Amino acid sequence: MNTSYKILGTGSCLPELTVDNEMYAKVIDTSDEWITSRTGISRRHLCDGEATWEMAVKAASIAIGEAGVSAETINMIVVTTLTPDYTTPSTACIVQERTGAVNAFCFDLNAACTGFIQAFDIAMHYLCASAEPFTALIVAAESLSKLVDFSDRRTCVLFGDGAGAVVLSNREADGSLLAPDLVYDSFIGADGTGGGYMTGKAFEPAEHPFRDADKPEREDLFGHETGIYLSMKGQEVYRFATTAMPMAIEKVLERAGIALEKIDYVVPHQANDRILQAAAKRIGLDPEKMLSNIAETGNTSSASIPICLDQEIRSGRIKRGQTLIMTGFGGGLTYGACALNY
Ligand code: UT7
Prior knowledge:
By secondary structure, this protein is of the alpha/beta class.
């Protein structure tokens, strides 16, 4: 049983196309004032030809390079996405093939915006359970522009595209042992009763040649009106988020046995600046410690935490030795948090 793991490297990728609020105001009934004041979003990046797998590979390659490990030493690849390009192969298998991580087992995970936290929790358990060297690559890659209806002002202005990645290991990049006891803890949870607050349909029922035309279709579970597009009950999700995020943070602090004062930064899912500030207030966290890049990226679902983490590491704000909490919430409903020593 290991008592340490470490983020060896991070990477991120945003599509080149940037769309600001004024550009939305030209095509739908909205305004920069409404979007900025209600969400904190000024602009976001949208795919303009890029595929989800492509952003995933770019972010992963940067993270592997930053980690200073050879791709062959990676044991596990998890890609979190609700917007893959293929139902099969998994995006994780595509990342494996493109990065040369030939020894990794691979799978995709969809927990909407909480995907990265769930993947981190799973990877952490592998890392801690393995007496042998174990390295995990987690990539969160999303093209929300595929899922939103650009005529629905309630959702389309909120979301952006992008990918973020981390390489985690229970050894240093050169294979040496880590300093002991760097493991903190994590917590993930779900509340299926709120499933209807954020929905998007997958496939239409099969029209195969053996169907009995008289048998009715099952009614849609959620009374989903927007076909494959994302439909969201914004206020209900807002209420959930402002409760679930503080709860996840408090739970992970309790499990890890650390005080809030020891936390240098919280890297939260970027859904709405108002949610972040309300959550900080609720737990008594200095609002400066609640990191936000939403003004420039919008909500990139599961990718938002590793993109923010990577940007803050590169900017120099997040430094080695600091204690971080990453926390997310989203469709499902799902939520969770991880505490770690960076
Ligand atoms: O990633 C995780 C999941 N997502 C979230 O965490 C999102 C959580 N929810 C929210 O962040 C907020 O609820 C929203 C940003 C989605 C909406 O903000 P709100 O303050 O809750 O607005 P609202 O839904 O109460 O709408 C207020 C008004 C409505 O007009 P009426 O009915 O009062 O006349 C909306 O039609 O704002 C209108 N509205 C807009 N107006 C201009 C909604 N979207 C827009 C828009 N531009 N883009």
